[in-house]
Amino acid sequence: MLFDLDGKVAVITGSSRGIGRAIAERFAEAGARVAISSRKAEACEATAAAINAAHGEGRAIACAASLGVKDDLARLVGTATARLGPIDILVCNAATNPHFGPLIEIDDARFRKILENNVLANHWLVQMVAPSMMERRDGVVIVIESLAAVRGIASVGAYGVSKAAGAQLVRALAIELGPHNIRVNGILPGYIATDFSRALWEDPTKLERIVQATPLRRIGTPDDVSGAAVYLASAAGRFVTGQTIVVDGGVTSA
Q1: For this structure, is 191 an active site residue?
Q2: Catalytic residue among 159, 174, 186, 230
Q3: Is the pLDDT of residue 88 over 80?
Q4: What is the pTM of this model?
């Protein structure tokens, strides 16, 4: 029963594929009802349909939303609440990185977009869901962080800055919301085979370097991350807040 999410309502951004989808599928498996969201409506609908087919009609709904558009996020929260009920769990998974290259070469527009989508949007979402959680004295927020937040990676410097800011957002919110029985934690995935990281794992040379640098000697899968999310969202993690759980196959232990 520690990992039971029966009756819980979860909003998961960036959940039409990759880590977000794996979390949505495992939440549904544990009994939650989930709102699937990403930019593309068709992808959201397909994911929601697959979850409903596997776990029963009404278990998932789709609501496309652009991460950097505050009105879109408000519509996502409103739709999820109207159709599923008060939101118990918020997973801030979606992120963007339009710049691969040296940090000193990034232009203001792209840097601003990274910070707005990866930090400010998560802040907006918490502002939208926290009041209801505070009234009910119950809630969970999970922010998906990144290896780039704790290690300097030249090609994704701006992205790393945004993810480090996200880790601090977790700590600050945990202090503020803890007295209301709202837990706020982060998950820091290592090298995971997703579309977002395709440039790394599709290149055999880069993949081999990653595997050799990982004590478990393999690259991770989206589902490797989902278990940590279920733990943090459920009663199993009821005394955990303000923390970042590292799911990286041992990379950061070296």
Answers
A1: no
A2: 159
A3: yes
A4: 0.95
Lowest mean pLDDT among 84-93, 109-118, 153-162, 164-173: 153-162
Domains contained in the chain, CATH given: 9-253 (3.40.50.720)
In this prediction, residues 172-187 reach a mean pLDDT of 98
pLDDT level of residue 148 (50, 70, 90 thresholds): confident
Look-up: residue for tokens 């005394």? 239
Q: What band does 242 get if pLDDT is binned at 50, 70 and 90? A: very high
pLDDT above 90 covers a percentage of the chain that reads 83
Structure tokens at 176: 């503020």
Give the whole-angstrom CA distance, residue 126 versus residue 232: 17
The identity of residue 76, as a single letter, is L
Q: How many CB atoms lie within 10 A of CB 188?
A: 23
DSSP string, 179-236: GGTEEEEEEEE-SB-SGGGHHHHSSHHHHHHHHHHSTTSS-B-HHHHHHHHHHHHSGG
